[in-house]
Design a protein that fits this description.
- This protein is mainly alpha-helical.
- The protein has a domain at 26-88.
- The protein is built from five helices and no strands.
- The chain has helices at residues 7-17, 19-24, 27-34, 40-55, 60-88.
- Helix 3 runs antiparallel to helix 5 (60-88) and helix 4 (40-55) crosses helix 5.
- The chain is elongated and about 45 Å long.
- The model has no long low-confidence stretch (mean pLDDT 90).
C-alpha cells in the first residue's frame, strides 16, 4: 500500500533539496525564473483540468495529468521564491 505524503511535506523537501539551486542563481537568471509562465496551451489545459476537478468529473488519467501539472507548478513556485530571495539580497535563498 502506497502512503502519500501531505503536500506541505513534499514542498518542504523540495525547498531543502533546491537550496543549492537558489544559492547559485545569478540576478539575471533569477529575473528570468521569476518571469517564467506556462505557455498558453499548457495554461488552458491546466484550467480545464482544474474546472473538471472542481466539478468532480476527472477521469483517473486526467487526475494523474492534473497532479503532474500541480507538481510542476509547485516546483516552479519554489524556484521562483528562491529567485525573489536572491534579488532581495536574502542569502538564505
Amino acid at each position: 500500500m502506497m502512503v502519500l505524503m501531505p503536500a506541505d511535506g513534499v514542498a518542504d523537501i523540495l525547498d531543502r533539496l533546491l537550496d543549492p539551486v537558489g544559492r547559485s542563481l545569478t540576478p539575471e537568471a533569477a529575473r528570468r525564473l521569476i518571469d517564467l509562465r506556462a505557455d498558453p496551451v499548457a495554461q488552458q489545459r491546466m484550467d480545464e483540468l482544474a474546472d473538471r476537478c472542481n466539478e468532480g468529473v476527472l477521469t483517473a488519467d486526467e487526475m494523474a495529468e492534473y497532479d503532474a501539472y500541480i507538481s510542476a507548478a509547485n516546483l516552479v513556485a519554489i524556484l521562483q521564491a528562491k529567485a525573489k530571495a536572491v534579488l532581495s539580497g536574502d542569502v538564505a535563498a
